[in-house]
Amino acid sequence: MQKAYIITGPTSGIGLATAMELAKHGTVILVGRNKEKLDRVQTGIRKRGQQAMSIVCDISDISSVRFAAKQIIDLGLPIAGLLNNAGIMSRKARKSAQGWDLTYATNHLGPFALTEALAPHLPDGAHVLFVVSAIEDPEREPVKMMRLKGGRYISAEASARGEWLAGGSKMAGMDAYSTSKQCILVAAMALARENPRLHVNAVEPGITHGTNLGGEDTNAIVRYLFGKIFSLIPAVAQYKSTPEKTAKTITGILTDQSGKTGVYFDEKGRPMLGSKLAQDTGFQDRVVAETRALLTQV
Fold it and tell me: Which residues fall within 8 angstroms of residue 241, CB to CB, at 6 or more apart?
């Protein structure tokens, strides 16, 4: 039976490019909230003689995520990889179906819940990959240039309420985005230690122009700064990528047979380090424990 790869947020940007690339290696299970867009991607893949199927799911809605996981499990396909790609960078504070901060729910809680639901059903050696962001690291050069402050985590409960550590960014929505991406990064590292039979990793996609991060309310100023201006500055240009380049990097990680796990990859597929806080295993375990406790409410 042909291998299968699950990808969330597959209808635009990095997700779309990766869906097309992954389809060369097996059946692609497309997970997204817009059925029409999913159908278009599915049709495009099938026209190339490759296999794809769609699961409608709002990754910010934990009930929707768990239902989607059940649908995927019921397919009975040999899952070789799960790519948690869907994400948003919203400048407006909005709420998910559970009443939680939409950015935090989309970028952290949803991917975490999907992985938790699917992990027991994944075969030994299956890959789980999270698309994260180095914007969580306040010491990273592009982050300092934008005068951002990195992750501002207080607790999972506080994050769900849209509350962040004081003294953060003045740019609307950036504390939520940085914190949500820090949380899913540290969760990936903790899950890698917890689940040695799986290959759990994270990837920083680089400064990638041509993606709206899966949301209509993406911070346009941030997109412009990252995609156009900052990518021309020598100190920052080294992090530049495209959806197509990142798709090849991601596909390489998801099809790798060397057994790497607990690795944080950069946009070129090289190991990198997160912030000092993200490297702290105690912090990693705390975020996971608090996330699980929060999700028991649903």
Answer: 205, 206, 207, 208, 249, 267, 268
For 50, the 3-state DSSP assignment is coil
Tens-place pLDDT, residues 172-195? 999 999 999 999 999 999 999 999
Q: 44-59: per-residue pLDDT in tens?
A: 999 999 999 999 999 9
* CA atoms of 19 and 5, how far apart (whole Å): 9
Those residues whose C-beta lies under 8 Å from the C-beta of residue 102, and which sit 6 or more positions away, are: 60, 88, 90, 93, 94, 95, 96
Burial class (CB in 10 A: 0-12, 13-18, 19+), 267: buried
Q: Who contacts 200 (Cβ-Cβ below 8 Å, separation ≥6)? A: 127, 128, 129, 188, 191, 192, 261, 262
Find out whether 1 and 77 touch, Cβ atoms under 8 Å: yes
Helix (H) or strand (E) holding 203: strand 199-203
Amino acid in position 270: R
Whole-angstrom distance, CA of residue 101 vs CA of residue 110 = 12
DSSP letter for 123, please: P
pTM of the model: 0.94
205 with 267: CB under 8 angstroms? yes
Rama region for 43: left / alpha / beta (φ>0; ψ in -120 to 50; rest)? alpha
The two three-digit tokens of residue 259, written as one number: 């057994």
> pLDDT of 162-175, one tens digit each?
999 999 999 999 99
Residue 275 CB coordination number (10 Å): 21
Task: Please give the Cα distance from 243 to 52 (Å, whole number).
Answer: 20
Could you give the residue ranges of the DSSP H alpha helices within 76-225?
Answer: 102-104, 110-118, 141-145, 156-160, 174-194, 220-224
DSSP 28: E
